[in-house]
Amino acid sequence: MNKEIHILFVEDVPADVVAVNHELRKAGLAFRSKRVETREAFLHELEHEPPDLILSDHCLPSFDGFTALSIAQDRCPNVPFIFVTGSMGEEMTIETFESGATDYVLKRNLSKLPAAVERALREAEERNALQEKEQQLRESEERFRMLVEGVRDYAIFMLNTEGRVTSWNTGAQWIHSYRAEEVTHQHFSMFYTPEDRQQHRPEIALETAAAEGRFEEEGQRVGKGGKRFWANVVITALRSSKGKLRGFAQVTQDITQRKQAEEALRNSESLKTAILDTALDAIISIDHAGLVQEWNPAAQKIFGYRREEVMGRPVDELIVPSSLRKIYHDGLAHYLMTGVGSLLGRPVELTLRRANGSEFRAELAISRVPTEDPPRCTALIRDITERRKAEQEIHRLNEELEQRVIQRTTQLEATNKELEAFSYSVSHDLRAPLDHITAYTKILQDEAAANLPESSRQHLQTIADSARQLSHLIDALLAFSQMSCADVHQQRFSLAALLEEARHELRRAIEDRKIVWQIGPLPEVQGDPVMLRQVLVNLLANALKYSRTRAKPIIQIGATETEQETVFFIRDNGVGFDMKDVDKLFGVFQRLHPSTEFEGIGIGLANVMRIVRRHGGRAWAEGSVDGGATFYFSLPKLPRS
Questions:
Q1: pTM listed for this prediction
Q2: Radius of gyration over alpha carbons of the chain, in Å?
Q3: What's the CATH code, domain 5-141?
Q4: Which of 296, 391, 483, 555 has a CA positioned 20 to 30 A from the CA of residue 353?
């Protein structure tokens, strides 16, 4: 590392600091250091000159390392904290990592310290970089959310590829009257009328949007309570950079007022002036020759012409761009000859021109006044420039957000793989010295035990038992690490059959015990049978172990179902546990009973939680002291075939 780092020592022995400095400089590490040995000095340094790394002894005359660790986690949680101590027992080692320390190095093995320091600094740098990227993503997501939430005139919501609602903005709640929690995960066909659903119009809309990129229509929609309203609906397909369909964005505008205004214009001339003056859309009336007969205030605002400037003039000279005038003239001639117009009775989107020559996107609807002869038409025009900008911005933000999510997922997966590889490597590094301990202890027992006093033979046996326990612990850690890396091979199978396999695997723990089994119906599930068999083995072994003190052990196994998932349970009448400790059950090395009463190392339930989560499910437990325990896990429900 080229950058000079600042190291803070929590140490009362200056000579030990000198030794550490010597090892670090010998390894080529550029640093400056400062030593403190009191709580007050430690706090002062953290506040006024925060370090890049903290090295701490476990015990000081007026201060201890665990207190320093707790303070550091509160004041500077991203700074690596390594214990450099004279001794470290198994319990203290576990407590060190459970308390949040980055690593530990024994003072008699200071040669390992440079590697530990470089590893800790590298991991801290990677964590800080990941946190910065996550913060940038959160800020981007917040800007996107604020943009969408700020739009009230339009219902803007996202659909997955199946047409189920995944997001819901304020405008959607305003227009449809549903709260987000009432519609999330529901199919968007709930907004269609029963008649439209019978004609499969929701499915047709999604198919069209997926095939053509965009679907737009006007029609009736249904809000909360069955209330119907007219809506303009635009559905846009969202695709990844590789063209894969990711879902849809729907923009719905309540156009009931516009429809009512059109109806009023057709049926009541007395309401004409009021509607023209109050309408937000441009309303232009033209005769059979295309000459302007009416020009409302909104048209004046949108196009920039005063009413007196346009009356009696050809509408195409005023608002139609020169590039579209031939199409306009051909359409007008066709209408005059046949009475049929291509723009009559349906809304279209097109480009129009203002008085200053600028062009903009508009939504146009033309209707014929049925009582007039020769024919007269009324055009409703809405400036959709801002709406198009909003839709484009939403589309851009969606693509940007999706890309960032992909990048973040890739980064997190890479980080997880590195952490798993690190755990696997550490476990293997522990194996070699442990094998030496086991082998040489066996040699001493075989060759020298007869010449040793009884107390020494007992000491040797204690060493052998401890080494065997540590071996089991390393094996469990390796299995726990490998469980994260293993692929989940999904298939459909019978859970009842898998349960029988698990019971057969535990037959030695079951034989010679009079166990009452109460097994209910178990359904078929989708998952990895190898992994889920391990879940059943671990939970059954747990129930067998903690009920062995009962004269009549009872183990119940069953399943219940909800709309979204299937929940399985294994219940025993054993010693149980206090619910205040329930959060510890599924943690690594977490045990609620002494090992002298019930064997175990605290990995089994952690493996259960990891496997179930990889299947998209949950795991939890209920129990009471001396009242037995029930362990649950859930799996997503199979789709109906």
A1: 0.36
A2: 37
A3: 3.40.50.2300
A4: 391
